[in-house]
Specification:
It is a single chain. Strands 7-8-10-9-13-17-14-15 form an eight-stranded mixed beta sheet, sandwiched between helices. It has a six-stranded mixed beta sheet with strand order 1-6-5-2-4-3, with helices on both faces. The chain is elongated, with a radius of gyration of 25 Å. Helix 3 (about 85-95) packs parallel to helix 5, helix 6 packs antiparallel against helix 11 and helix 11 crosses helix 17. The chain has helices spanning about 25-35, 40-50, 85-95, 110, 120-135, 160-190, 195-210, 220-225, 230-235, 280, 290-300, 300-305, 350-360, 380-385, 395-410, 440-450, 490-495; strands at about 1-5, 15-20, 60-65, 70-75, 105-110, 155-160, 215-220, 245-250, 260-270, 310-320, 330-335, 340-345, 370-375, 390, 410-415, 430-435, 460-465, 470, 480-485. It is about 35% helix and about 20% strand. By secondary structure, the chain is α/β, with parallel strands linked by helices.
């Protein structure tokens, strides 16, 4: 979709559909309609009353004449629109466009800047909401010739000259954030028969090929053995698929202000190992690599977003499968730091691979590490399906991530790392056990397990994305069922603001 910025329309019909957000305010709605200069203005106002259009969130009113279609979009807001309101409104635009054929759409900037004059942020939010709401993973379905296909060629925005630069830059940034999220969604939505560790590695290689500031190393099993990543190897040993350890690196064109590692859990299919999951629990376990998908999705656009920090992307990719060679409950393995782990349950495998991923990440001389993992069902018990649980050993890092998540419209809530709970992960025969001695506080004890492998002085945050990594039903108007791509936009907001 091409963005066209203009001062005013050359003719009223150049944008086949004009979208106008309205506050939940009768006088504001009437004022906007009067500003559209309809000859039959009284008839339009009468329709608004008859159809009880109040500007409530999700409401819409379609006004047609021989020249142009105008769609009023209710915001539910009384005075001011937030960045999330703008994203939701862009999603509403897409929902309307799925019902009608159009190639050119338009909007007046002053209709959208209601109590919020941040033109750049508006451009960013519209691009994000529109592209994310347009997403559909249908590559394995037959084409439905009777369905209207979304095919918008031009978005025409009418605004002042002084607003064009900010809106254009914001729109470009929003497009990149959305495309990175869509890449992550695609990876999560792929069937596990295709989405293997080798597939993930090829995606990383292609990203490095296309982006001059991104490099990649793919470590094979022999190299992993030499690094003594026995924890990672123990999870992989039940599978016939070859493991891949992926190390992406972004180097900014300017002197780096900091060095960051992003670590994504990369279990491309989780059967539970010998502690086999039930059939219902296993059905969507293709999404257990959603943390890795976020890292790779982020790297697919990082060269365009241009943060001024060095960023490492780390993924230990393998399957967790039951077989004669699989790890057994009661086994003891070592991570590359030499710490021993008792494998009390083979279905708590993600944290075992992360023990090596986190250790490797810190070897890259980074100052901050953020990991993302579909780690526990317990975090969903605590926070429900839409929220990520945030754990951090540094207050400033936690606050920065929470602020970035709020800006990105991704829900996140900080949970504690109580020292007194560390004893729950104690093992009688090893340094630490991979599941606790209690059924309670599972998200916290999992985070405390990971903290065992964080070196003193390293700022670290853990994002348990088990809830919002995969939407069983539509999460919001721009997030359909399936892979969500959670975290791509939050982390890019965080990195670009450093």
């Amino acid at each position: 979709m091409e963005l066209i910025l203009k001062n005013q329309p050359e003719n009223l019909a150049e944008g086949q559909i004009l979208f106008c957000p309205v506050l939940e305010d009768k006088q504001a709605i009437e004022s906007l309609v009067k500003g559209l200069d309809y000859e039959d203005e009284k008839l339009v106002l009468s329709r608004i009353v008859q159809e009880n259009f109040l500007g409530k969130k999700g409401q819409s009113l379609l006004i047609t004449d021989n020249v142009q279609t105008v769609i009023l979009l209710g915001t539910g807001a009384k005075k001011k629109l937030s960045v999330e309101d703008w994203r939701q409104l862009a999603g509403q635009m897409v929902a309307q466009l799925r019902k009608m054929k159009a190639k050119k759409i338009s909007l007046y900037l002053n209709h959208w800047l209601k109590g919020n004059k941040d033109t750049a942020l508006l451009g960013q939010a519209i691009a994000e909401g529109f592209d994310l709401a347009s997403y559909n993973f249908d590559k394995y379905k037959k084409v439905d010739t009777g369905k209207i296909k979304l095919n918008i060629e031009e978005l025409i925005v009418y605004l002042d000259d002084k607003q064009k630069n900010d809106f254009g830059k914001g729109f470009e940034l929003g497009s990149y954030l959305a495309w990175g999220t869509i890449k992550a969604r695609d990876l999560v939505n792929e069937p596990a028969g295709k989405m293997t560790p080798s597939f993930l590695a090829q995606e990383a290689l292609e990203i490095a090929r296309l982006n001059k500031n991104v490099s990649v190393k793919i470590l094979e099993k022999e190299q992993v053995v030499k690094l003594k990543m026995d924890a990672f190897l123990s999870v992989d040993q039940g599978s016939n698929e070859a493991l891949k350890f992926i190390h992406l690196k972004y180097t900014p064109s300017v002197k780096a202000k900091d060095s960051i590692a992003l670590v994504g859990k990369g279990i491309t299919f989780d059967s539970g190992g010998l502690n086999l999951k039930s059939g219902d629990s296993m059905e969507q376990m293709k999404m257990d690599m959603a943390g890795a998908a976020t890292v790779i999705g982020l790297f697919s656009v990082i060269d365009q977003v241009k943060p001024k920090v060095e960023v490492h992307g780390i993924v230990a990719a393998c399957e967790n499968m039951p077989s004669g060679s699989a790890s057994k409950p009661g086994d003891v393995v070592y991570n590359m730091q030499g710490k021993s782990i008792e494998i009390s349950n083979t279905d708590a495998e993600g944290r075992v691979t992360l023990a090596d991923s986190l250790a490797y990440a810190q070897k890259q001389k980074v100052n901050q590490v953020v990991d993302l993992a579909t780690l526990t069902g317990a975090v969903m018990v605590a926070l429900g399906p839409d929220y990520t649980g945030l754990f951090a050993n540094d207050t400033k890092l936690a606050n920065e991530l929470l602020a970035s998540a709020k800006k990105a419209g991704e829900k996140m809530w900080q949970l504690p790392l109580p020292k007194e709970y560390k004893k729950l992960n104690q093992s009688r025969i090893a340094d630490v056990r991979n599941i606790p001695s209690t059924r309670y506080g599972g998200a916290i004890t999992a985070a405390l397990f990971l903290q065992e492998f964080i070196v003193d002085g390293t700022k670290w945050a853990h994002l348990d994305i088990a809830g919002p990594a995969y939407a069983e039903k539509q999460m919001n108007i721009y997030t359909p069922p399936g892979g969500v791509g959670f975290g791509v936009r939050t982390l890019l907001e965080w990195l670009k603001d450093m």
